[in-house]
Amino acid sequence: GIGGIILFQHLGGSAQMELKLNTLVWPLVAIVLGGTPLTGGSGGPQRTILGAITFTVFYRGLYLSALHPTMVTLLVGIVLIVSIIVSARGLKGVTVT
């Protein structure tokens, strides 16, 4: 809003646009870890909150272990892929209407 316009002029009229994939992927990981399938269906806010707590504990553990940030991102991606595979196997044979 207005604060962005004021800050834009304060910075000399230049803006840096940067896409941070972490801010897009982390909520997805929390949702999938909570057990909500990407195809929709069963799930809920309680499961999503549980997934968010699980992901936060996992991420903070990786962060505190002093791993390189690229390695942390790789491990988060692996957790996401494994969670999706486990979720898809649980939905095998289930029809969504």
Short structural summary:
The chain has 97 residues and is mainly α. Helix 2 packs across helix 3 and helix 2 runs parallel beside helix 4.
Walk me through what this model shows.
This protein has four helices and no strands. With 97 residues, it is mostly helical. It has one domain (18-90). The longest helix has 22 residues, at 69-90. The protein is globular and about 50 Å long. The mean pLDDT is 73. The chain crosses the membrane at residues 24-41, 72-91. Keywords: Membrane, Transmembrane, Transmembrane helix.
If you average the pLDDT, what whole number results? 73
- The domain tally reads 1
Quaternary structure type: single chain
Number of strands: 0
Shape summary: globular
Q: Note the gap between the termini.
A: 41 Å
Largest sheet, strands/sense/barrel: none
Ranges where pLDDT stays below 50 over 5 or more residues in a row are: none
Helicity level, as a percent range? 55-70%
Provide tags for this entry.
single chain, globular, 97 residues, 0% strand, 66% helix, mainly alpha
Give the helix/strand layout.
Blueprint: H1 2-10, H2 21-33, H3 45-64, H4 69-90
